[in-house]
Design a protein that fits this description.
Order of helices and strands: EHEHEEEEHEEEE
Radius of gyration: 16 Å
Number of helices: 3
Shape: globular
CATH superfamily: 2,3-Dihydroxybiphenyl 1,2-Dioxygenase, domain 1
Helix content: 10-25%
CATH topology: 2,3-Dihydroxybiphenyl 1,2-Dioxygenase, domain 1
Length: 193
Amino acid sequence: MKNNNQSIPSPSFVKEGEQNKMQGYKFSPVRSKKELFNTIEYLHVTCNELCKLTFGRYLPPAGNIGIFCHFEDEFKFLTSLCEELTDRNENWNQKYYRLHEPIIVSSKGDMPRAVYTYLYIRKPDPDKPEVGDIDFVLEDKRFAELKNFLHDNSNINGVDIFYRPDLDMFRLSSPDYDVLPYITTTTMKEKGI
């Protein structure tokens, strides 16, 4: 790409009544770069809202964002677009690919600006209707406190919290949200990538 940073266009979320009627997916199938950026914008805002609802504050993003496909043609298109936007040789966990140019989402009200440097496109899974995921960083001490808290609870402020020991991460979910924020202690940069 020729410009230095990808800036997300102004929000143009799916308007009420315009949602995809097939299986109720909000953005699938994504069919253009603009639709991808709209999906990223939505993920950023909605994952941040769920973090703030849970913790009472916004958490810094780790730097990666995942788009969940729901159709094979969508996956083929987004994989092809991902090849254009990312360095396929530079990936983390054979899953997240480094963007040639970061995707920057401007601040919105009290929601801070974010920079995403890695992109993941998930294969279609009809049993998982979420739009996507973003990893957020929680300080080590708070992360440990959350682990201890969850021995007796699995819910904070109406948000379900699930610990993934295989990843040493927490996943936030709510029936009112179609995104999956994950909580970790390290940014993508700190992972040594």
